[in-house]
Design a protein that fits this description.
Strand order of the largest sheet: 2-8-7-6-5-3-4
Order of helices and strands: HHEHHHEHEHEHEHEHEEHHEEHEEEH
CATH topology of the largest domain: Aspartate Aminotransferase, domain 2
CATH superfamily of the largest domain: Type I PLP-dependent aspartate aminotransferase-like (Major domain)
Largest sheet: 7 strands, mixed
Oligomer: single chain
Number of domains: 2
Radius of gyration: 23 Å
C-alpha cells in the first residue's frame, strides 16, 4: 500500500515532468512560431509591400506614427508573445527557472548575440543596458591623477557621467574635443581624436552613433589609431547595435556597450556588453554575488536574481532579426534615410542637419524647420498629426531627431513630410 508520503513524492515527480515538458515548449516552439509568423519576401509583388507586412508585426497606439525609435524601441508581436510565455513558465515554478533551469537557453541567447556581431560567445555578457555597461567599464580602471580620457562633446550623458564619477573625481583629466556637426568625411572626425591624444591618454570613450543628430563616428579608424599608441577604446553602442550590420571584431574596439531595447527589438531592460578576449581581464564586476570569481565573462553578470524572461526574449528578438536578415535591415535603413533626404533636400523651408555620407549617418536624421523653434514643432507634430519624434536643441541643432526603424514605411515618411510642410507654412 502506498503511503501518503509516497503519493506525495509521485505527485511531485509527475508535476516536475509536466513542468519540464511545458517549459521546454516556450523556448523552442514559441521561437519557431515567431519565425514562421513572419512574411516571406517572395510572397509580395514589390519590396514596399513586404515592409508594410513587417510593420504589422508591431502594434502602436491608433493614430500614432512612431519616429522616436532612438529613444526607445518597440518589440514585434512574436517577441512580446515569446517573452510572456517565458514569464508564465517562470511564475509556475519560480525557484527552478530563476536559478539554473534556463542555463542552457541563456547560453543559446549569448551565442545568438555573438553570431549577430561576429564575435565569440566568450566575449559577450548579457546585462541590462548601455548605462550599466559604461559604468562597469569606467569603474574598472585604476587610473592615476593626470591620466587622460578622451570624450568628445557629443557623448550621451550615460557615456560621459560614469567616467566623470568614477575617474574624474580621482584627478583623472577628461578631455572634451569638439566634433564637427556635419562632417564630410571620416578623416575629418578621426583628426579631432588624433589632435586630442597626448602622452597621458589612456582611454578613448566614443559613441558609435551620436544621440544628437545620428552622426556615425569612425570607431574602426579611431581604434586602429589608438591601439598604435597603447590606448584602450570603449564604445557606447546604444544607437549602433542593430541599426546596421556591425562586425565588432572588425570594428576593433576593446569594449562595446549597447541596449537591446532599441534597434535589436528586444524586451526592455536587456543589454549587451562586448569585451574583447584580450582585454576583458581588465574589467571588474559592477556588483558582486555568487559567480564573481568565474574566470569567464559571465563574472560580469552576477545578479543572483534577475528577470530571465526578458533575456530569453532577446533570443527571440535575434531570431526575428535573422529571419528578416540583418542584410535586409541594413539596406532598408539606408533606403529610408535616402528617401527622407530626397523629400526634403532643395526645399528652403527645411535644413538637414545630419551628414549626407552613408559612412557618417544612417537611420537617425535631424531636420530643422526654418524659422520655427524645435520644441514647438515637436509638440505641434504630435498634437495635430500624431507623429512622435524627439526635439534636439543642443549644438545649435534646433532640429527634430527623426529615427526610422523597419516598421516605418515610405508612406509614413510621405506623411511626415506633408505634416512638416503644413507646419512650415
Amino acid at each position: 500500500m502506498k503511503t501518503q508520503s509516497t503519493n506525495r513524492r509521485s505527485f511531485i515527480r509527475s508535476s516536475l515532468l509536466g513542468v519540464a515538458g511545458a517549459t521546454s515548449l516556450p523556448f523552442f516552439s514559441i521561437a519557431k512560431e515567431a519565425v514562421n509568423a513572419l512574411p516571406s519576401v517572395s510572397a509580395f509583388a514589390d519590396d514596399e509591400s513586404y515592409w508594410e507586412a513587417i510593420k504589422k508585426q508591431f502594434q502602436f497606439d491608433e493614430g500614432l506614427t512612431y519616429l522616436n525609435h532612438a529613444s526607445l524601441g518597440s518589440s514585434p508581436h512574436t517577441v512580446r508573445k515569446a517573452t510572456q510565455a517565458y514569464m508564465e513558465t517562470l511564475e509556475k515554478f519560480p525557484s527552478k527557472y530563476m536559478w539554473g533551469g534556463w542555463e542552457e537557453e541563456k547560453e543559446m541567447v549569448r551565442s545568438k548575440v555573438a553570431e549577430l556581431f561576429s564575435v565569440s560567445p566568450e566575449e559577450i555578457a548579457l546585462n541590462h543596458n548601455t548605462s550599466e555597461g559604461m559604468n562597469l567599464i569606467a569603474r574598472s580602471f585604476d587610473l592615476q591623477p593626470g591620466d587622460e580620457i578622451i570624450l568628445a562633446n557629443h557623448e550621451h550623458a550615460s557615456g560621459s557621467i560614469p567616467w566623470e564619477f568614477w575617474q574624474e573625481t580621482k584627478g583623472v583629466k577628461i578631455v572634451r574635443p569638439e566634433l564637427p556637426l556635419i562632417p564630410e568625411s571620416k578623416d575629418e572626425v578621426v583628426a579631432v581624436y588624433q589632435q586630442a591624444i597626448t602622452s597621458r591618454t589612456k582611454i578613448i570613450s566614443i559613441c558609435h552613433v551620436v544621440n544628437t543628430n545620428g552622426m556615425i563616428l569612425p570607431v574602426k579608424e579611431v581604434s586602429e589609431m589608438a591601439h598604435e599608441k597603447g590606448i584602450l577604446v570603449a564604445v557606447d553602442g546604444a544607437q549602433g547595435a542593430g541599426m546596421f550590420k556591425t562586425n565588432l571584431a572588425d570594428l576593433g574596439c576593446d569594449f562595446y556597450s549597447a541596449s537591446a531595447h532599441k534597434w535589436l527589438f528586444a524586451p526592455k531592460e536587456v543589454g549587451v556588453l562586448y569585451a574583447s578576449k584580450s582585454k576583458q581581464h581588465l574589467l571588474k564586476p559592477l556588483m558582486v554575488a555568487r559567480g564573481h570569481k568565474n574566470e569567464t565573462i559571465r563574472r560580469l553578470e552576477t545578479y543572483n536574481t534577475r528577470s530571465l524572461p526578458e533575456v530569453l526574449g532577446l533570443g527571440s528578438a535575434i531570431d526575428f532579426i535573422n529571419e528578416v536578415t540583418m542584410e535586409r535591415i541594413h539596406n532598408r535603413t539606408y533606403e529610408l534615410k535616402s528617401y527622407l533626404r530626397e523629400k526634403l533636400e532643395g526645399n528652403d523651408k527645411f535644413r538637414l542637419k545630419a551628414p549626407a555620407n552613408d559612412d557618417l549617418s544612417a537611420a537617425i536624421q535631424s531636420v530643422e524647420v526654418v524659422g520655427k523653434k524645435v520644441g514647438e514643432v515637436k509638440q505641434q507634430l504630435y498634437e495635430e498629426f500624431g507623429i512622435d519624434c524627439r526635439p534636439m536643441s543642443k549644438f545649435g541643432l534646433n532640429g527634430l531627431r527623426i529615427s526610422m526603424s523597419i516598421y516605418i514605411t515610405k508612406s509614413d515618411i510621405d506623411y511626415l513630410v506633408s505634416s512638416l510642410e503644413s507646419i512650415a507654412g
